[in-house]
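Quick one: co-fold with pyridoxal-5'-phosphate.
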Amino acid sequence: METATVEKTETKKMPDTKGYFGEYGGAYLPPELVAEMEKITASYHQIKDTDEFKAELTRLNRDYTGRPSPVYHAKSLTAKVGGAQIYFKREDLNHTGAHKINHCLGEVLLAKQMGKKKVIAETGAGQHGVALATAAALLDMECEIHMGEVDIEKEYPNVIRMKILGAKVVPVTFGLKTLKEAVDSAFMAYMQDFETQFYAIGSVVGPHPFPMMVRDFQQIVGAEAKEQFLDKTGKLPDHLVACVGGGSNAIGLFTAFLDDEKVQIHGVEPSGKDFKVGNHAATLTLGKPGVIHGFKCYLLQDEKGEPAPVHSIASGLDYPGVGPQHSYLKDIKRVQYETISDVEAIEAFSIMSKTEGIIPALETSHAIAYAIKLASKLDPKETILVNLSGRGDKDIDFIAENYGDVIGID
Ligand SMILES: *Cc1c(COP(=O)(O)O)cnc(C)c1O
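Sure, here it is.
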């Protein structure tokens, strides 16, 4: 149990003061940004534990987002699969329909207290964009969201939502026109003026302090779930499952359980169409350590070490990098990272909708697909807790157009 011991003493104080989780993380930045990131780190440490900040975030989490989100025993799905008991942490029931509102409220509150005028960010599926536009509307900040043209077309309802909420949506027209390019574009816009703007990163990625900050704002998910699960069953779950794009919903659920050695933890990445370069986004499974967007992590790379093209049916998982803490948790073997393909995710999307009456996000459908596979191999006495990171309203037009025949609605 050597790795578990290392992890137990180490994770509590991670990242170190320079933002490293083992060898991953840090801040690989243009010189002009170094001081600004240090300022954000210092402000975060100064503000986060003040009574005023904590009280306001707690109030918004409860009365605005609707926290705590329930833990739900999915008896119909469990019966259909015929194995371990499947439970869901219902982040899909949050205001705006996903877990991202948890870190957006935190980030925008921080930006406001730092005296910033505008928040700026990338979005993949549009979930981070909508959550950020929501928090910005609420807290009276300007908001600018960069989104790839491919994703704009796929997730159009979210584009409209952002605009209704008062945000400016900037289409990204270069490269693959998806999440990585949206980050590149948002970062360029941010660099024009980082005095009055705040880059509110949408996952546990980017330079220090973002992987730490976003994790801290998301860990409420696991903290609540642990208590709720104990209340319901008298035990901890045997398994945790969450999908991993950048890794924020996963680390949000996992953090409270990292020291509970008996809890087996699974992160699920998209294997897309197949394992050829450009057809998947299975970063932890097939990547090698490298630097992207200001931090070190497992990275899908081409021969030149540049970020490789990626694909997933789920726009929110379509990223060649991954959170530095996940990279570390893979190396110390505390979390097992698995893959689910586009087709398997679509199948799970359909099964979940038809047996539970819950239409899950395509991102989340990867976690559900893996949970179904896992449950079928386990005893009914065992339990699996899945992070239901978001609802699938945003995906229904895309599904109807492209997979209507597959799920039998044509
Ligand atoms: C954005 C998103 C994800 C992927 O992002 P993580 O940072 O890996 O959590 C997963 N599920 C939903 C519903 C999302 O909107």
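If it helps, Residues 31-48 form the longest helix (18 residues).
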